[in-house]
Amino acid sequence: DQQVKQNSPSLSVQEGRISILNCDYTNSMFDYFLWYKKYPAEGPTFLISISSIKDKNEDGRFTVFLNKSAKHLSLHIVPSQPGDSAVYFCAASANYGGSQGNLIFGKGTKLSVKP
Amino acid sequence: ETGVTQTPRHLVMGMTNKKSLKCEQHLGHNAMYWYKQSAKKPLELMFVYNFKEQTENNSVPSRFSPECPNSSHLFLHLHTLQPEDSALYLCASSQGQSKSYEQYFGPGTRLTVT
Predict the structure, then answer these.
(1) Which tens digits make up the pLDDT trace of B88-108?
(2) B25-83 pLDDT per residue, tens
(3) Nearest partner of A18 among A73, A89, A86, A75, judged by Cα
(4) What CA–CA distance (Å, rounded) separates B18 from B80?
(5) Do B41 and A101 touch (CB under 8 A)?
(6) Residue B91: its pLDDT value, please?
């Protein structure tokens, strides 16, 4: 059973508008969440993260929101640019006795930003 | 070379072949990971090495055999694979397994088993 779910396989957005990518998780032990971005023929690259003690983290055009009660996080990209077109993976990790556990990934959402 | 490199980038092999995938990291990290990414599936963690010791094997079939001779190099030896093993194989590294949330990925090897 998937612990990290990205229910939208794809998303298409107009350049300049907001892109919102969603992620749900089932394991209440997860306390660290990350978004990775992947271009074709490249490995995933880290984009932004959030600890469970926060509900928002912002880095330039990228903001991640965490709703622990709903076990939901989202990535907002404003304004969206054609170069943002990629597959976005949500990942989560749990802390076990002071050591962070391995990353659990979602299936990814393919974002297409149209000029 | 910087970051995490993987060779070959593409590999086609028959079910009776033996081949190896290579990963090298130039980041001074101590933990290395093999992931499998199949179409329409999440990245699946296969193996973890921390300071050259295998710490995790996620029920991976024995036809996949990892090797970590030092903290900078990781291999995945393949033999008698099945067509369903066709996938993108990604290598990653982190400072240590305790910092597994800060992983740096290689570009992957696209494997096709015929």
Answers:
(1) 999 999 987 777 778 999 999
(2) 999 999 999 999 998 888 999 999 988 888 888 889 999 999 999 999 999 999 999 99
(3) A75
(4) 7
(5) no
(6) 97
B-chain CB neighbours of A102 within 8 Å are: 33, 45, 48, 56, 97, 100
Distance CA A105, CA B19 (A): 27
Burial of A107 (0-12, 13-18, 19+ CB in 10 A): buried
Calculate ∠ Cα A54-A28-A98, nearest 5°: 70
Instruction: Output the six-digit token pair for B36.
Output: 């499998």
User: What is the C-alpha separation between B105 and B25, in angstroms, rounded?
Assistant: 9
Regarding beta strands B104-105 and B109-113, do their DSSP bridges make them parallel or antiparallel, or are they unpaired?
unpaired
Residue B57 burial (CB count, 10 A): 14
Q: Which residues pair with A15 in a beta bridge?
A: none
Count how many Cα atoms sit within 13 Å of the Cα of residue A27 in the half-sphere of its side chain: 20
Q: Does A43 touch chain B (CB under 8 A)?
A: yes
Q: What is the mean pLDDT of each run of 10 residues along chain A (115 residues)?
A: 92 98 95 94 92 96 97 98 97 76 91 97
Residue written as token pair 């179409």: B39
